[in-house]
Structures are given as structure tokens and as C-alpha cells.
Design goal:
Strand content: 35-45%
Structural class: alpha+beta
Helix content: 10-25%
Radius of gyration: 17 Å
Distance between the termini: 51 Å
Number of helices: 3
Length: 141
């Protein structure tokens, strides 16, 4: 292995969403494609370690940088969703990667004909886009 020829690894992974804090962007049970180790910007949806329980991974939208970390919020209007309003700024070292896409699994027991699979692809696989107008989120909360 040379300096330039370091082992090429694809820095992608899959995670499952649990809970309602990112509705309508992500639903409970959605699978997400995570791009690890990329530069993150305000508006991105990111996977991070929970600041108070670091063995728990969570998905939140990055709103802005504050005091050496990120202010993160869920997309849902559910008041019980935990985000930076509860635990404050999230340090950079707890952010793991950006969510690039989501897909909803095919319903168990459902016929898997070509038509069903194509319909599933058209309706269940979507990119997760950054919301670059995050300032309206701060005003709305």
C-alpha cells in the first residue's frame, strides 16, 4: 500500500429509522443510505451519536454551527421529539455521515413480480435532499 494508493473503501452504510422525529422526510421503518466521513453543511440530514447516550444513533437535520458544534432539529412538529432544544449543541466528533437516500422496505409477504418491484422502486426509493433554507426553521420554532 502506497501513500496515494491507500485501500479504497466505499464509505457507505445502511441504517433503519426508528421514531417520528424526521416525519415527513423520513418515516419509522425507513432504511437510509448513509455516506460516512463527508463534509456536512447546514440543511443536510445527518446520522449522529446521541450526545447523552452515545451508543444510540439518531437522524436529525443540521441547522447551523454554534459554539464548536451543530444545532440539530427533527423535521417533525411533534413536541416530544428530542433534538438540540433538549440536549444543546452536538459536538463535531459525534456526527457520522450524511443521509443520501431513503427507501421503504417491500411489505413482507407481498408478491414480488416485476410490476410490484418496479412500482416499489418508483414510489419507495427517494434521495434525501438538503434543505438549504434552514433559517425559516429557526424562525418557525
Amino acid at each position: 500500500m502506497t501513500d496515494q494508493g491507500r485501500e479504497q473503501r466505499v464509505p457507505f452504510g445502511v441504517a433503519e429509522v426508528g421514531g417520528l422525529s424526521m416525519v415527513p422526510t423520513l418515516l419509522h421503518g425507513d432504511q437510509v443510505l448513509v455516506h460516512y466521513g463527508v463534509q456536512l453543511r447546514p440543511g443536510d440530514v445527518a446520522v449522529l451519536r446521541h450526545p447523552l447516550q452515545q451508543d444510540l444513533l439518531i437522524v436529525k437535520r443540521l441547522i447551523e454551527r454554534r459554539d464548536g458544534g451543530w444545532w440539530v432539529l427533527g423535521d417533525s412538529s411533534v413536541e416530544s421529539a428530542q433534538d438540540s432544544r433538549d440536549y444543546g449543541v452536538v459536538p463535531d466528533e459525534l456526527l457520522l455521515g450524511r443521509v443520501r437516500a431513503r427507501y421503504r422496505p417491500i411489505t413482507p409477504g407481498r408478491q414480488r413480480s416485476l410490476g410490484v418491484v418496479l412500482s416499489w422502486l418508483a414510489s419507495s426509493v427517494r434521495p434525501v435532499l438538503a434543505d438549504r433554507d434552514v433559517s425559516r426553521r429557526l424562525r418557525a420554532r
